[in-house]
Design brief:
The protein has 37 helices and 33 strands. With 902 residues, the chain is α/β, with parallel strands linked by helices. It binds adenosine-5'-diphosphate and magnesium ion (MG) (2 copies). One magnesium ion (MG) binds next to loops.
């Protein structure tokens, strides 16, 4: 019975049976050919073999039962419709066999044109074309070339050399100068190449050609380059490709024929207009192959006004139908226009915003849909400075844009050299074949990283993204020679110290220093845009879409800021408060002295005097921040890192002591410091005496900070602003810790605040797994929770970020243990589960509990969607990510169709 079912399974669809929503089954190309057919556009008839057939073939190595029969049936129907038989000697039907997966994978898979030609039907084809021998032989040589390369793995260069040879013999560089005899000769040469590499004659049987071509398209799904591309683009490996069998139309029939591509808007800028290329007397693959120079599509108007007008009308029709930018392939056969492909076109980040805005203006989509058409990654891209590439700069290589940004600097080949030059104030680009954990210091010192190997998940790429550093990886045209301190590219040698520029968004590499220009989008957010740019279509579109996101989102967006300047900047970027103000920097610089006194204090008096000296300094820091955030909440985290981080490193102290002793100086203080550092040494500082534990162990430390916060709030409020402090206790794992701190803090606050009207909230970080699991208890003592997802991720996984990102993350990504680093995007299943539990149990215990997140995940698009789903009140992120978080929070609120915007 099972066999019967497979036989009945439908593997082949006529174009008329499909539509654009069947991409899973028919692939993008097939689904859209079907859609155009049903819209009544002139598509050459054909049929589609489903992705299911491909998957069955790839699983077993054989065509599934019933497929051959269904192909025969559909082929017969096609032959009837066209009035000719495949490969008929007198009047042949020819077809193309085209790949087409759900997601477009440009240039990754295979297509064979002119299937059905052989030694006999080539004569029939010529007769059919009114005795056009040149055209017939040109088509035949193309078949042998594409079939040989694609189906039988004959090296493509061999055919290209033979073609060059024929042109040279004719004394020309233009393939159009080859006449019928030349092309007949070329067919003979091609056949010999075919025999040499395959050990068999070029197959003459049309149906065999068809079947072999279909198989080859199936198999191209697993070709190495396709596998690599899918991994980079995060396209699932198990989708398979459909196969489109399309009756041929001919752009190579003479000067009144041709082929081209068109975009309904400029995919670079989004500008409206006619964009595309046209090539007369050619078949489709010539346009991409760059065999001859194309002309701008506008020139078609002179060449063939009727087809041109018709094409424009079809383009308008398709845009109206898809309600988006479409790209199109077409062919003109003796004045008759045929549509060969369309799809919603890829576009740059800028074009995505501009087009979404235009489509709203045109009434094709509403603002919710416009919000869905853009994403935070695109907005982030638009916020990086860009290279100003007016004219002279041409890229010398192109790798993978592994971590965005634009960086220029002197080339160095070792980590040590990078550190050396950077210390002298030079901007450097670290160039390596690939990086490894030993390169870490050099990567930190460099402006940017360039590697000749490795993809988006290589060591270089992962670490650079983690550090927010520009990186181009896998630029394989670059030949790196580390011992000789040089690389070669495009015939040029670049030595250590020469300047290069790399674009981590496009992956392009330039020689020399390319000037950088600031982002207009950032200028717009900062309110510093020159008036003439206010009309900039990109800025207008960003403004419009951001306003809509703000109107729709439920999540508030705060920022992580420790200084008044950062706070002010974030506020201009739209931050609605500070979600994390770290206080550790208030213990650095010239205040170290006081911290040392605090640590070394032997009596209560000594300690209290050190704290008393710190109090006014902290109070001033807080006053500045409260003033900048007038009216908005400011969450201040009490001191978190272990105190020994504020002391000089052990080795340095040991040397100081030795040197001073040698000179016979008084070393009492150095010795005391050294002893303290030795005493405070921790095996795992991340899990040691820090956060709330410090507050419970060192009397007066938290009290001093609480007093500084409360006094600053009162002072600012008395001066006419509104301060809304929220005191946050770090690293709490048990409610008792929080209760102890809170009891002391409340006493101080009551005493300081008096009748000033200032209200101070007290809450806690949730960053220790135990806190998440006992959130119901902790909520009894907390007015708010803020998820510290960096520490929560570290502690949930049991690894420290600094140690692991360079050490083994690349391997975990390669193995698929992570789809993406859990520090980049929240691990929904593990860390996310802890967040969910804590949110639910916290709210159950205290319904008015405020919930936020203050890890870097607060600015990550995917994570923002997760926090929206979990029902947090706000996310907090670095000032620069605030617009991204606003946009994604808006998208999360209107999302009805998942977050897939590929
Ligand atoms: P890709 O996905 O790489 O663009 P396609 O399957 O679209 O590959 O085909 C490659 C080229 O051949 C394109 O320019 C296409 O327009 C052209 N082509 C495909 N099928 C036909 C056909 N039946 N008649 C004429 N040209 C065709
Ligand atoms: Mg195509
Ligand atoms: Mg923490």
């Amino acid at each position: 019975m099972a066999a019967q079912e497979t036989v009945d399974h439908k593997y082949v669809y006529d174009f008329a049976e499909g539509n654009k929503d069947l991409k899973d089954l028919l692939g993008g190309k097939g689904a859209n050919l079907a859609e155009m057919t049903n819209l009544g556009l002139p598509v050459p008839p054909g049929f589609i073999i489903t992705t299911e057939a491909c998957k069955a073939y790839l699983a077993t190595g054989e065509e599934p039962a019933g497929l051959a029969g269904q192909i025969a049936t559909h082929l017969e129907a096609l032959e009837r419709e066209m009035g000719r038989r495949l490969g008929d000697p007198d009047d042949p039907l020819l077809v193309s066999v085209r790949s087409g997966a759900k997601f477009s994978m440009p240039g990754m898979m295979e297509t064979v044109l002119n299937v059905g030609l052989n030694d006999r039907s080539v004569v029939g084809l010529s007769a059919q074309a009114g005795g056009n021998d040149r055209f017939a032989w040109d088509s035949y040589r193309r078949l042998i070339q594409m079939f040989g390369k694609t189906v039988c793995e004959v090296p493509g260069e061999e055919f290209e050399h033979a073609l060059d040879e024929a042109k040279r013999a004719k004394g020309t560089t233009n393939d159009l100068d080859l006449d019928a005899d030349d092309l007949r000769g070329l067919v003979d040469a091609y056949k010999k190449i075919f025999v040499k590499h395959t050990g068999r004659e070029f197959p003459q049987e049309p149906r065999e050609q068809l079947d072999l071509a279909i198989r080859a398209v199936f198999e191209s799904w697993n070709a190495e380059r396709a596998v690599v591309y899918r991994r980079q683009e995060r396209i699932p490996a198990d989708l398979g490709t459909a196969v489109n069998v399309v009756s041929m139309v001919f752009g190579n029939l003479g000067p009144d024929s041709g082929t081209g591509v068109a975009f309904t808007r400029d995919p670079g800028s989004g500008a409206q207009g006619i964009y595309g290329d046209y090539l007369a007397n050619a078949q489709g693959e010539d346009v991409v192959a760059g065999i001859r120079n194309t002309v701008p599509l506008q020139e078609l108007e002179q060449l063939d006004k009727k087809s041109y007008d018709e094409l424009l009308a079809f383009m308008a029709r398709l845009e109206g139908h898809y309600k988006d930018l479409c790209d199109i392939e077409f062919t003109i056969e003796r004045g008759k226009l045929w549509m060969l492909q369309t799809r919603v076109g890829k576009r740059t980040a800028a074009a995505a915003f501009v087009i979404a805005g235009q489509l709203v203006d045109e009434g094709l989509i509403d603002l919710d849909e416009a919000l869905h058409r853009v994403n935070g990654a695109q907005l982030a891209q638009l916020m990086f400075p860009r290279f100003r590439l007016d004219h002279e700069f041409q890229p010398v290589a192109k790798g993978i844009g592994a971590s965005p940004g634009a960086a220029s600097g002197k080339v160095v080949f070792t980590s040590a050299r990078a550190v050396e030059l950077a210390a002298e104030g030079e901007a450097v680009i670290l160039v390596r074949r690939e990086t490894n954990p030993d390169d870490l210091n050099g990567m930190i010192a460099a402006q940017g990283i360039l590697t000749s190997r490795g993809g988006k998940t290589s060591h270089a790429a992962v670490v650079a993204r983690g550090m927010g550093k520009t990186c181009v990886s896998g630029a394989d045209e670059i030949d790196v020679n580390v011992p000789a301190k040089r690389f070669t590219v495009a015939g040029q040698t670049v030595n250590e110290g020469d300047i290069v520029s790399i674009d981590g968004t496009t992956g392009k590499v330039y020689l020399g220093e390319v000037p950088v220009m600031p982002s207009e989008v950032v200028q717009y957010f900062e309110g510093s845009l020159e008036p003439e740019h206010v009309d900039n279509p990109l800025v207008r579109a960003v403004h419009r879409i951001m306003s809509h996101a703000d109107a729709k989102r439920r999540l508030a967006v705060r920022t992580n800021a420790d200084t008044g300047a950062d706070a002010a900047r974030a506020r201009r970027f739209g931050a609605q408060g500070i979600g994390l103000c770290r206080t550790e920097h208030m213990f650095l610089g010239d205040r170290r002295e006081l911290v040392e006194r605090l640590i070394l204090a032997r009596t209560d008096d000594e300690r209290e005097s050190a704290l008393a000296a710190l109090l006014p300094l902290q109070r001033d820091d807080f006053k500045e921040i409260f003033r900048e955030m007038d009216g908005l909440p400011v969450t201040v985290r009490l001191i978190d890192p272990p105190l020994h981080e504020f002391l000089p490193p052990l080795e340095q102290l040991a040397v100081n002591v030795a040197v001073a002793q040698e000179r016979g100086e008084d070393v009492a203080k150095e010795e005391a410091l050294l002893a303290a550092v030795r005493r405070m040494h921790e095996e795992n500082p991340m899990l040691g005496l820090r956060g709330v534990r410090l507050g419970l162990v060192i009397p007066g430390l938290f009290a001093m900070q609480v007093r500084a916060i409360a006094e600053a709030a009162v002072a600012v409020t008395r001066a006419g602003a509104v301060a809304k402090p929220e005191i946050m206790v770090p690293l709490v794992g048990a409610v008792q810790e929080l209760e102890t701190v809170r009891a002391e803090a409340e006493k101080i606050i009551a005493e300081v605040v008096g009748d000033s009207g200032v209200e101070v909230l007290i809450g806690t970080m949730i960053e220790v797994p135990r806190a998440a699991l006992t959130a119901g208890q902790i909520a009894e003592a907390a007015q708010f929770f803020s998820f510290g997802t960096n520490d929560l991720t570290q502690m949930a996984w049991g690894f420290s970020r600094d140690d692991v990102e360079g050490a083994f993350f690349w391997r975990y990504l390669e193995l698929g243990i992570f789809g993406i680093s859990p520090f980049e995007s929240i691990d929904r299943d593990g860390v996310g589960r802890l967040v969910r539990i804590a949110a639910e149990e916290g709210r159950a215990a205290r319904p008015e509990l405020k919930l936020g997140v203050c890890g870097e995940h607060g600015g990550d698009p995917d994570s923002v969607h997760f926090f929206h789903e979990v029902g947090l009140d706000y996310v907090s992120c670095s000032p620069f990510r605030v617009p991204v978080a606003r946009l994604e929070a808006g998208r999360a609120a209107v999302e009805t169709h998942g977050s897939d915007s590929r």
